[in-house]
Design brief:
Strand content: under 5%
Oligomer: single chain
Order of helices and strands: HHHHHHHHHHH
Number of strands: 0
Structural class: mainly alpha
Length: 292
């Protein structure tokens, strides 16, 4: 019983962290507390710092070697996700952005399965993909106040790049080593980007030195990003694949509720209809197989 409750608490904490990342990003960007570029740099450099601390403390947990090109490719997808989500939340609410993000994660991984793994899509998964796209269309063109087409496009890139990052990681051996190595690639790129940004666009590097600015960015990087990623990989080993798909449905719902409750975003009929369609599409695509 204690193990079951511990697993439930672990899953709930991870889902809350995933949803919280969207809300924190939106809050920092729209509130002018951090620029998209510097927020991304702080988030993933500090996240790598936490992973490095874990590796030093528990060397056996991150024992996989750097694999060269595979980890560089994974780092590229992670970086594309990281910068797209930061810029995307300039133009879209946390609620709508999270829904678009998850829709494109599912669509991208489904397409990857067909093209790369030669999987045959089932009628159920095809219906799910159509529903997810229909939901995104409703969100994009439904006249929601905090939603614009650039935001939808950037969140589509965010979801697609995360889907490719996840799919590419399946061949990465130990997922913790894959996470560490790809964070290493992105953190190195971020550090190299700082002097370039200072010369080309100095205004792109700004963050408020306060608990609401830098403090939240560091919290997101070190706790709700790096630690939650590692914890999620470990948790996936203890639950069925179908259960993993179901619990991730909670993230868009949580992010929507948090965005409405904490950021004052508007709940509209269009958002509800689009969100319901996206969630139905995610459900049909993610919960169509037993454990593997």
């Amino acid at each position: 019983m204690a193990t079951r409750w511990g697993l439930a608490l672990s899953v709930a904490s991870i889902m809350l962290a995933f949803a919280g990342n969207s809300v924190i990003t939106r809050y920092l960007i729209v509130g002018g507390l951090a620029s998209p570029v510097l927020l991304t740099i702080v988030r993933f450099v500090s996240g790598f710092g936490m992973l490095l601390l874990l590796r030093v403390t528990f060397p056996r947990s991150f024992s996989g070697p750097f694999r060269g090109r595979p980890d560089l490719i994974g780092g590229f997808f992670l970086g594309l996700y990281a910068f797209s989500i930061s810029f995307g939340y300039e133009f879209i609410s946390a609620a709508a952005g999270t829904l678009v993000f998850y829709a494109f994660v599912i669509l991208t991984m489904a397409l990857f399965g067909v093209v790369h793994d030669r999987e045959t899509p089932t009628p159920r998964s095809i219906v799910g993909q159509i529903l997810a796209l229909a939901g995104v269309a409703v969100i994009a063109f439904g006249g929601i106040r905090e939603v614009s087409l650039p935001g939808v496009a950037l969140m589509a890139v965010t979801g697609s790049s995360w889907g490719l990052y996840s799919a590419h990681g399946r061949s990465g051996g130990d997922p913790r080593a894959y996470t560490f190595n790809t964070f290493l690639v992105l953190a190195a790129f971020c550090l190299l980007l700082i002097p370039v940004a200072e010369i080309v666009a100095p205004g792109a590097l700004s963050i408020q030195i306060s608990g609401n600015g830098l403090g939240l960015a560091l919290f997101m990087g070190m706790i709700s990003t790096s630690l939650s990623y590692v914890l999620w990989h470990l948790t996936l080993r203890r639950i069925k694949a179908s259960q993993g798909g179901i619990v991730q449905l909670v993230v868009p719902v949580l992010a929507s509720l948090m965005g409405i409750g904490l950021l004052g975003e508007h709940l509209t009929v269009t958002l509800v209809l689009g969100g319901a369609s996206v969630l139905a599409g995610i459900y049909l695509n993610r919960v169509n197989r037993g454990p593997r």
